[in-house]
Specification:
Radius of gyration: 20 Å
GO biological process, one term: transmembrane transport
Mean pLDDT: 93
Order of helices and strands: HHHHHHHHHHHHHHHHH
Strand content: under 5%
Membrane topology: Multi-pass membrane protein
Main location: membrane
Protein name: Citrate transporter
Number of helices: 17
Helix content: over 70%
Oligomer: single chain
InterPro entries: Cit_transptr-like_dom (IPR004680), Diverse_Ion_Transporter (IPR051475)
Length: about 350
């Protein structure tokens, strides 16, 4: 659905301006592809499940398990992207809930917040971070200075919200996950390191891309079919659409009138994210401001709020609703998220 919308918008925008091939940031597309395919390898060999269950099996109460699920989701999301963090850990939360006979809605809502907050920490944590990191050529030091404060405050907020979970013991026995073919897993971890170094601009991204292609051609060609190419094409469509509309005089005039300082960039990027999600919001507003600090913080905060503010919100909702049809999940989700959005917008105004 997101791809279809982005495609229609890209096509319609071509009636206003001639599309340019250099409007597409191929470096971002390549970096995303590298991340996607190596994470698919981790999923195939159950590495992420292994890590998660190893961590969670050490805790016994609803509150402590809830906190560790939330923390693990946030930390994994900062490394393997927020959507993969949720796809991996929300099913484990549901498994724990079924074994212990409780509704996991509250924990999953906190997991979703944690994925959005945790993924904001690093350039590879989510697509908008990666785009802004490359588009503005942000240094790692500047990047972490901006995101570190937000993430630290975010995890304090998650700790407070988790106190709602009862401090009762759960009779829980999670089956351990056995890793097969550890030599291949070790190689994929090495490949992942190369990809991360290419994101950090230590290794040339083109070299990392070639190594990634050769590795999967030799080791597992079938994983090429598992990559979410529609997401990559969605990015291409967004690049074309936003480049086209950013050259329309009335639109340029509007944004030049409203994006007048760092606080307006923060607020508008957060609010626009509520309606079109934070990925296209980041791409859109980047065309009209040089204030990457406020924009990066704004779209990070903007992942809170509506269900469509971040694609991660939709992922966890879809997983939850398959198992728990009759629930007040959406109401609770929006109460918590709008409260979080308001709180962090206020804090953000003091940070920028």
């Amino acid at each position: 659905m997101v791809f279809i919308i982005s495609l229609v918008l890209a096509i319609l925008s071509c009636f206003f301006n001639t599309p340019r091939i250099d409007s597409i940031d191929f470096k971002v597309i390549i970096l995303l592809f590298n991340l996607m395919i190596v994470v698919k390898a981790f999923e195939k060999y159950s590495l992420l499940d292994y890590i998660a269950i190893k961590i969670l099996s050490r805790f016994k109460t609803e509150r402590s398990i809830g906190m560790m699920i939330v923390l693990t989701t946030g930390l994994l999301s900062s490394v393997i992207t927020n959507d993969v963090g949720l796809i991996t850990l929300v099913p484990i939360t549901i498994l724990i809930a079924k074994k212990s006979n409780f509704d996991p809605g509250w924990i999953i809502i906190l997991q979703t917040l944690a994925a959005n907050i945790g993924s904001s920490l690093t350039p590879m944590g989510n697509p908008q971070n990666l785009f802004l990191y490359e588009f503005f050529d942000i240094s790692l030091k500047d990047f972490f200075v901006i995101t570190g404060v937000f993430v630290a405050l975010g995890f304090i907020w998650l700790f407070i919200l988790n106190l709602k979970n009862k401090n009762i013991k759960l009779d829980l026995d999670l089956k351990s996950v056995n890793l097969s073919n550890t030599k291949v897993i070790i190689y994929y971890l090495f490949l992942f390191l190369i990809i991360i170094l290419s994101i950090f601009r230590i290794v040339d991204y083109r070299l990392a891309f070639i190594i990634t292609l050769i590795s999967f051609i030799i080791l597992d060609k079938k994983l090429f079919l598992k990559v979410d190419y529609l997401l990559l094409l969605t990015f291409v469509c967004f690049f074309v659409f936003i480049d086209n509309i950013s050259n329309i005089d009335n639109i340029r005039l509007f944004f030049s009138n409203v994006l007048v300082d760092d606080k307006s960039v923060l607020v508008y990027s957060s609010l626009i994210s509520q309606f079109i999600s934070n990925v296209p919001a980041a791409i859109l507003i980047s065309s009209f401001t040089s204030d990457f600090r406020s924009l990066l913080l704004g779209v990070s905060i903007g992942g809170m709020g509506t269900l469509i503010a971040s694609l991660a919100n939709l992922i966890s909702y879809k997983i939850y609703i398959k198992e728990y049809k009759d629930s007040n999940y959406l109401l609770t989700f929006h109460i918590v998220n709008f409260l979080s959005l308001g709180l962090f917008l206020l804090l953000g105004l003091f940070i920028v």
